[in-house]
Amino acid sequence: MRKPIIAGNWKMNKTPEEAKNLVTELGPLVKDAKCEVVVCVPFVDLVETKKALRGTKIKLGAQNVHWAEYGAFTGEISATMLKELKVDYVIIGHSERRQYFGETDQTVNAKIKAALSKDLKVIVCVGETLEQYEAEETITVVSKQTIEAFKDISKDELKKIVIAYEPIWAIGTGKTASPTDAEETISVIRKTIKRLYNTAASEAIRIQYGGSMNPKNASELMAMPSIDGGLIGGASLNAQDFAKVVNY
Ligand code: PEP
Hints:
Blueprint: E1 5-9, H1 16-29, E2 36-40, H2 46-53, E3 59-62, H3 79-84, E4 89-92, H4 95-100, H5 105-117, E5 121-126, H6 130-134, H7 138-149, H8 155-158, E6 161-165, H9 179-196, H10 199-204, E7 206-210, H11 218-222, E8 229-232, H12 239-246
Parallel strand pairs: 1-2, 1-8, 2-3, 3-4, 4-5, 5-6, 6-7, 7-8
Helix pairs in contact: 1-2, 1-12, 7-9
The chain binds phosphoenolpyruvate.
């Protein structure tokens, strides 16, 4: 049985003070959650958020990490730095990072390795553009992204990785993939993991859906057998809304 995982991706929103207020409100609202709950906050919010999360079951996540251990990479943050702040998860390869910051399947793979080497858990994002969706290339695109992301990652390391399937045309647009479409693509990703590793690994890995998931559509998406949670953008910026998704 896979334990569902619902993670909020705040993107570039919330100051440290606002972060503290949000998680202070969120804690009691999700105290009986049956799924794992994570908030992925801006780097500058990590310290305040960690403090405010004390006594809750909510895990802390970052939204990016650099592939190098340290060095001349102005403006970047290493896995060692995140680990020292007691970060649990890091999102890698979000489509906004691929689109605006030139991340490629190769840098995604390098970043996953860097995160795992410091014992951070990873949420790796895959998903197709609207153009690729309309050209019926979804399966080809997400399979390639998955294969490249997991290059030289061992079966043992796989246990520390969650995949988020996020159709880019559904992110922040209010358009959601239908539960059956999301289920179908996620099943293909699972089959790819089976081909790369084995049946047990493919049955164990958790795969989230992301893309305009909200309190209204969370339960029907979560009812699909292959969907093991959600990566939530907009609806995670409000404690009440995020709690409704978590308590789907
Ligand atoms: C995301 O940022 O990963 C996301 C899914 O955003 P939204 O929920 O706003 O579509």
